[in-house]
Design a protein that fits this description.
Elements: E1 2-8, H1 18-30, E2 34-40, H2 48-55, E3 59-63, H3 82-88, E4 94-98, H4 100-105, E5 114-119, H5 122-132, H6 135-157, E6 161-164, E7 177-179, E8 184-185, H7 188-193, E9 204-208, H8 214-226, H9 228-234, E10 239-243, H10 249-256, E11 261-265, H11 270-275, E12 279-282, H12 292-299, E13 304-307, H13 308-311, E14 325-327, H14 330-342, H15 344-361, E15 363-364, H16 371-377
Parallel strand pairs: 1-2, 1-4, 2-3, 4-5, 5-6, 6-7, 8-15, 9-10, 9-12, 10-11, 12-13, 13-14
Helix pairs in contact: 5-6, 9-14, 12-15
Length: 379
């Protein structure tokens, strides 16, 4: 059996972070075809209790505290980490690294056995910031895109195997690049989330995600500012529940003053949260990957209203009007939220179809074996 060193910023476990979901998915599938050792590279470290619990059933080697910042120049640096240098000397068939940022600081971009899961194409994220942001953010995005593009393509072309969550028009087609789409964990939690609860007197709409991630809190802020007033004007009893860890305080204070918005922050059980809401939203306007929050919501029997950006990568499978609704702008977003609030049969039909499609095409469990990963790594 082959041996793989798996490196990720977080412990690979399913949580409320889309990145952690993908890490857990890839780690779970790799364990079906290889002996996998795990090393984390969190700038702030891994909580001792979490690391200890994970190590009870897995081989966990420790954490390497890499810098937070990313060098768009991709120039060599002099940082060295004793643990990483020691691990390079071990007899691993592959070193599987989540994110270009991680591989850069760990000096692995030139390693002959590197498998790099980029997840998103950073060029696409910079281009979206240039298109949708303003002021200094727009200027910096333009500058870094111009400076970074050619070096990014050159760097990616030299890596033995590069993985993306979906195809990006800005990432050149190359024989060393493949697409492995996101999936969500199949579990009994999905069944709990669709259990019938006593009917509420009002409809509840949910946004859930890691709220320290700028595309999440900026996208939701724009929805609350531009769409939510129109929703309340038409259906004044509807409530918006905001769930997710690490929301910046200025947004928490701002949203708490808005009518019918409940800022809940981190919650220990998403099962209970999903069971108490009627449908979900994803108004994210910037981001280059596929949004795991879409799959998670649909797998729990809750349809969604999503932005065109959140819908990217799902156009052919999760079609607008069949399993969810896609909003083209803020006005359209408000209109479609109101439609789902008032039309319960429509909401139920979309929810049932969405759950069925996700269960068939976008779920995994401990017995899952990806034919693509197996073909790539087992030879």
């Amino acid at each position: 059996m082959k041996k793989i060193l798996f490196i990720s910023p977080t412990i690979p476990e399913a949580s409320d972070s889309g990145g952690a979901h993908r890490s857990h998915y890839l780690f779970t599938e790799l364990r079906q075809i290889a002996e996998v050792h795990v090393c984390t590279c969190s700038p702030t470290g891994i909580p001792h209790d979490k690391a200890k619990k994970f190590a009870e059933h897995n081989i966990y080697l420790g954490n390497i505290p890499i810098p937070r910042r990313f060098s768009f120049s991709l120039e060599s640096h002099r940082l060295a980490f004793p643990l990483m240098e020691a691990l390079k000397k071990r007899d691993y068939d592959y070193i599987f690294v989540r994110y270009l940022h991680s591989a850069y600081w760990l000096n692995l971009l030139q390693h002959e056995s590197l498998i790099l899961d980029c997840d998103d194409c950073q060029l696409e994220l910079l281009q979206q910031m240039r298109e949708h942001c303003s002021g200094m953010t727009k200027l910096l995005a333009w500058y870094y895109l111009k400076k970074f593009a050619s070096k990014y393509q050159e760097c990616i072309s030299r890596i033995p195997l590069v993985i993306y969550a979906r195809h990006s028009p800005l990432a050149r087609s190359a024989p060393n690049a493949v697409v492995i789409p996101n999936k969500v964990l199949r579990s009994a939690a999905s069944d709990r989330a669709i259990e019938q609860r006593p009917r509420q007197r009002h409809t509840t709409v949910l946004f859930v995600g890691l709220l320290s991630y700028p595309p999440n809190h900026f996208g939701l802020d724009q929805f609350i500012k531009h769409s939510w007033p129109n929703v309340l004007e038409e259906v004044p009893d509807v409530r918006l529940k905001v769930v997710g860890a690490k929301l910046p305080k200025r947004f928490a204070r701002k949203w708490s003053r808005v009518a019918n918005v409940d800022v809940c922050g981190y919650v220990p059980s998403l099962d209970d949260v999903y069971a108490d809401v009627d449908f979900c939203i994803s108004p994210v306007s910037v981001g280059s990957g596929t949004h795991i929050k879409v799959l998670e919501s649909l797998s729990r029997g809750k349809t969604m209203v999503v932005s065109t950006r959140s819908h990217r990568g799902f156009e052919e499978t999760l079609k607008d009007g069949e399993s969810l609704l896609v909003a083209r702008d803020f006005k359209d977003f408000a209109r479609k939220v109101c439609d789902l609030v008032k039309d319960v049969p429509l909401r139920e039909r979309l929810s049932q179809m969405g759950r069925s499609i996700v269960e068939q095409s976008f779920t995994y469990d401990a017995s899952t074996r990806s034919s693509m990963l197996a073909d790539l790594l087992v030879g």
